[in-house]
Amino acid sequence: MNELELKKLWQTTNDKLEGSFVINKKNTEDITRVKVHSILGSMKPIKIFTLLVGILWVGIGIIALSSIYLNSFSEANKFFLFSASIQVGLTAMALFIYLYQLITIYQVDITDPIIRTQEKLASLKMSTLWVTRILFLQLPVWTTFWWNESMLTDWSALQWVITLFFTVSFTFLALWLFFNIKYENRNKKWFQLIFNGKEWTPLMKSMELLEQVDDYKGQTPAPR
Amino acid sequence: MDKQEQQQFFQDIIEQHQGILFKVARAYCPNEEDRQDLIQEMMIQIWQSIHKYNNQYKISTWLYRISLNVAISFYRKSSTRAKKYTGLNEQMVETPVEDKSENEQKLNLLEQFISELKEIDKALMILYLEDKSHTEIAEILGMSVSNAGTKIGRIKGKLKARFSQLIS
Lengths: 224, 168
Fold this sequence. Notes:
B: mainly alpha
């Protein structure tokens, strides 16, 4: 079958089907009157809400921790203080990513060429990977914040071995995941195991789309 | 343009170019119910972007950009939609074709071929079948004209191979 026949077949079939498809005037009028939530618009409220809650959490954390550092540092439990500081610091980093996402949402122009728009949208989704990496990086501090100075004198060797085993394992795991959760490893089994659920499907699809974008731009995949 | 002029312009372009919306929606969304939602989303995006339109590009170029961008994003958003989509394709493959006309068989094969393409390839295929020039395809997709030519050549090769399988 030659090219022209194929195009003709496609066009005549669509023309035939199109005949039964009519957007009535009332629908178009309604769209111009009703305030509607679109695909991108629906992403904004949840991002803004997360950003506000995050700012509140980090704000309270900074105020509380600063007060300890300034007024009662010598009496404070250093393990708790340093663990909480790392946690608040990492949450602040995650907030910057949410801010970046929000700015990108406002910058996306649906009338731009397909490759540019889809690259922006897919990169936006992919930045969620950074949030996940930071979330994993917080793992070790959840094993140290309850430590206290009396442990140094009162604890047996066995208690230390067990506690340190968890802390060292969590630290190793957190660092390993932080450095390895990236676009380049998307086809590895462990990666697909972590990002297996339904909620991760758009993320995985965004990765596939970025591959297509790179292919169309004639580039090797950029590190993301 | 004031609000009333924008409304009129919007109604005119939808009336004159609804075929673009329909064809794109049909290629990305074989399920009738989802397709209605997709077309509505396309119309919303067109209305919300109407103030940005300038006559630097043909209206069809502008409409293809919006409808394809919406279709690709819409398609990516839902996994259940993708499952339905696969189900439809499988069904299409199993349908006995003996009693169908040759054109219907070819059309089925063409539709199946399109449904198996990746999102951006699918956009390219639609534009190719719509007989758009390489320049317009490049403007819609956002690539160089020579690159558009190369990609079209590649996709035509795949299509040819698929049809020669049918003949053999």
